[in-house]
């Protein structure tokens, strides 16, 4: 039997070339298989992330979660006081709104004013009586003195805003002067600074007032006050209290 190599001197060369080609094709097949495996793994990872998002796990990065916790804790975030928290709340607004909706809450962002507010959902018909008690925002009842202070601050804010002021500042003396007409209702003297100081602290805690750096006698009225007392309610309440003061003074004069 004839040896192929005897009749064909290039036989082994072609055989080596064929073997090399086969090895190369095998390597390419292995590379393609590895690439396919990596692609499948990436798709599986993406699918797991999507599933986690649908289930509500890890939808927000850690810094955004901390910003949301800050809003839940304080109820108000001012861009002037906490710019990073404010920016995160704006950036992740859609995801945060979905999360808050599950707790019967909503987030209001007033970008021109630089304010983020945490509010209860307005549609209370969807909330049963047993669920309403679990709402995170409690209704606070203000004293008469605190209510009058709130109205005085709101009126001053409205007047200065109408005059074109972007930052509304008020000092303690002006607050006292504007409270003076209502003092017969509160049985408080104009010089009762301690009571006024306590009421101002409450307004600062509720983010309605902010301290002016380097001045303990002046305060900024924040835009939050617009959402606590609207203009129509302000005028109505001031008219009612002024009527009460007039009636009280009349009764005192008649008693004398």
Tags for this model:
three-stranded antiparallel sheet; Arc Repressor Mutant, subunit A; disordered N terminus; Aspartate Aminotransferase, domain 1; 12 helices; 12% strand; elongated; 256 residues; mainly alpha
- State which percent range the strand residues make up: 5-15%
Q: Number of DSSP helices? A: 12
Q: Helices and strands, in N-to-C order?
A: HHHEHHEEHHEHHHEEHH
- N-to-C terminal Cα separation, in Å? 146 Å
Query: What form results from the Cα inertia axes?
Result: elongated
The appropriate CATH architecture of the domain at 144-250 is Orthogonal Bundle
Question: Regions with pLDDT < 50 over 5+ consecutive residues?
Answer: 1-7, 23-29, 48-56, 124-136
Strand order of the largest sheet: 1-3-2
What kind of sheet is the major sheet?
Answer: 3 strands, antiparallel
- CATH structural fold name of the domain at 144-250: Arc Repressor Mutant, subunit A
CATH class of the domain at 144-250: Mainly Alpha
Structure description:
The protein contains twelve helices and six strands. The chain has 256 residues and is mainly α. Among the domains are: 62-132, Aspartate Aminotransferase, domain 1 (Alpha-Beta Complex), CATH 3.90.1150; 144-250, Arc Repressor Mutant, subunit A (Orthogonal Bundle), CATH 1.10.10. α7 (144-162) crosses α12. The longest helix has 45 residues, at 11-55. It is elongated. The chain starts with a helix and ends with a helix. 15% of the residues are buried.
């Amino acid at each position: 039997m004839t040896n192929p190599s005897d009749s064909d001197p290039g036989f082994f060369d072609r055989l080596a070339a064929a073997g090399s080609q086969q090895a190369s094709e095998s390597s390419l097949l292995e590379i393609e298989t590895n690439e396919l495996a990596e692609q499948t793994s990436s798709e599986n990872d993406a699918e797991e992330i999507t599933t986690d998002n649908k289930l509500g796990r890890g939808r927000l990065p850690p810094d955004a979660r901390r910003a949301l916790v800050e809003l839940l804790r304080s109820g108000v975030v001012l861009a002037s006081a906490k710019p990073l928290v404010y920016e995160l709340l704006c950036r992740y607004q859609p995801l945060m709104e979905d999360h808050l909706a599950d707790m019967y809450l909503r987030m209001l962002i007033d970008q021109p004013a630089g304010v983020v507010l945490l509010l209860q959902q307005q549609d209370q018909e969807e909330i049963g009586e047993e669920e309403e008690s679990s709402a995170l925002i409690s209704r606070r009842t203000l004293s008469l003195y605190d209510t009058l202070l709130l109205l005085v601050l709101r009126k001053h804010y409205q007047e200065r805003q109408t005059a074109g002021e972007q930052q509304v500042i008020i000092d303690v003396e002006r607050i006292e002067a504007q409270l003076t007409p209502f003092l017969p209702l509160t049985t408080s003297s104009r010089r009762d600074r301690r009571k006024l100081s306590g009421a101002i602290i409450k307004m600062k805690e509720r983010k309605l007032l902010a301290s002016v750096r380097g001045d303990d006698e002046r305060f900024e009225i924040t835009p939050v006050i617009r959402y606590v007392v609207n203009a129509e309610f302000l005028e109505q309440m001031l008219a009612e209290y002024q009527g009460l003061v007039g009636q009280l003074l009349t009764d005192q004069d008649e008693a004398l």
